Structure formats: C-alpha cells, structure tokens
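Pilot study result, target chain (366 residues):
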Amino acid sequence: MTQSDIQLGDFLDTGHLSRMTSGILSKILCHLCNGGPLALRHLLFASNGLYYAAVNDASLWTTISFDDEFFEHFRGQPVEQAESFTKQCLRWSSSLPLCIRIFRHDALDADLLTGPLRALSDHKYRGSERCTSLIWYHGGQDGVSDERILALLPKELPSLRHLSLSHFVDPKNGSQFPICPVLEKVEMLAQASLNRSLWGTNFAHVTTLSYGNHADWYIYDLSTLSLFPALRDLTLFTTNSGHAWMLYVLQPALPFQHLQTLRLRGKLPPELLAWVVAPALEALHIEANDFGWTSIDTLCDPLSSLCLHLYVLLPEAVTRIGPPWATNLSRFVLKCTRMETLFVYKWMEEECIKLLGHSNVVLRVL
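Predicted structure:
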C-alpha cells in the first residue's frame, strides 16, 4: 500500500464529505494528486459524489506523471491500460495547459511509455498542443531509452514554455527534439555533452536559464551555455559541498549581452565565473546551496560583471564554512564601482556596516 493509498483511506473514513464546500474538497483532491492524478484512481469507485468531484475538476488531471508510481502500477498489466489512463487524463483535463513529467530508469520503462506518448500525439486530445511544461529526469546509465522516448514524442510542442532536464543524456543517433518555438525557461542539472543537432534552435529565444552540476564542470558546459544568447536571467549552481572544479581548457569568454539578473548558488569554479561577461547586469545574487557553500571568496578576481544591486542573503551557517564571508564581500563591493544597493539579512547587518565604511552604497536589510 502506498502513502497515497493511506492518505486517501483516512480521507474517505472521515464521513464528512457531504458537509464540505466544493472549494475545500477541491483543495483536498489537489493535495492528494500533487504528484499526478494516478492517486485519484480509487476515488472513481468510492462514491458518486467523489467521482463527479474528481471528474469535473479539470485542473486535477493536468499533470501527467510517468514516474515510479506510474511504472509500478502499470507494469505487469496489459499495455493498453497505461494508454487508457493517459487518454483519460487528456479528456478530463479539458482544454487546460498540461505538464508532462517523465522519470525513467530502464528500458522496461521506455516500453511502457509507447502507448501513453502515442496518446499525447493524438490530435483528438490536443495533448501536444496544450503541453506547456516538460520535466524529464533520466535515472539510467545510457541514452538508449531516451532515444526511444524521443522517437515517440510529437514533432512539435507549440505551447511548451518550460523545460526541465536532470541527468539527461543526448542521443547521438540523429534524433531531433520536438520543435519548441515559444520556449522561454530552461532548467538543467548534470547535463552531459550537448548534441546541437538534437536541440536545433530551441534555445535561441530562451530568457531564463538555471544550469548546474553536482561538483565538476567541463568544457562542454560552457558550450551549452553559449547556446542561450537571449538570456535575461541566469542561475549557475553547484549542489555538493566542498570545492567545485573546472576540468579541461577553457574557451574564450562569450558575453551575455542582454543578461540583467545573475544568480550564483553554491561554490562555483573561478574559471567559470571568468567566462561570464554581462555588460547590462543589474542584479547579482550570491546564494548558499543546501550545504552552506558560496562563491564569495572566488568572485573578486575573475568576475568581470559589475552590478547595480547586490543581493547577499545567506544563512548563518556560512560563518562556519570557508574563508570569512565579510572580508571577501568587502573586497567584492569595492570592485563593483557601479553598485548602488546591497541587500542582506539582519544577522549580516553589523558586519556590512563596517565593510561599507564611507561608501555611497546603500545598505538594505531584509
């Protein structure tokens, strides 16, 4: 029995459904299907009231998750069952925008997706036309299954605005990712070497990018970043604790001419920061990752981007990690001769007053 089954059982045992307003009931159902509507399958047989509440709320069916729960439920059943469930989601989501989540781990998972992805391409349900968000997590060791999934995807996702990729392996067999003419926001974690023929011009008009690795960075990371010429908001991050390294020789710096906001989360390689040139930068955010690491001590020398507004909103945990944060922040503030405002948390205020001295920079405490 899954956690969703337990939560649903508690919900059904309350006996108070008839006294609930439609708004409250809708919120409860939304919570139950937070990871996707598969958790609602029991409701369809529980009572007429729950059936109509679930079926008539199109928003409950707009996130279609091909995840562990999906594969565990449909593996071993006739292959038509997974396709039928997907069609049900497409029908009951009406004309609302869709979010498709693909979390695959092995070749068997790819086999099970044949029917569901075929349903997504069916013009009857307009699934491919309504898909505005695609979240794809690759949990395997190679790109063989990704090739097969790509072959099943529609040729075009005309409404896709948000794409999130984790540990994705680009197929090298001449595959073509769906054309995404309005794509504007991309997230990438641990992206392997990017195959330009796969992506075409999908990144040419993207304005927001979040790009990171667990620790090591490579030359192909820079090649990937160079495919986003229209960026206005860029986040670079490292998830692990300790030092991050830049491996292999660097290519020449490529300026982000339109970049207005830059976020640096975790401890990033100084060579990477030297590559970032943003003449129109307005706001720089220095953030700590979950381990409390920052890039303050590596910013002074390499980063050539000077900003108007600096946000250094750090947890107190950074006081126990690495070099003194205030000393390095002081050096960086002096370097940013264009800076007008420094935003910090309350616990940082005393040290920041000292480091600013007679500077014209305005200190804002949040």
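One observation from the pilot: The longest strand covers residues 131-138. A full batch analysis is planned for the follow-on phase.
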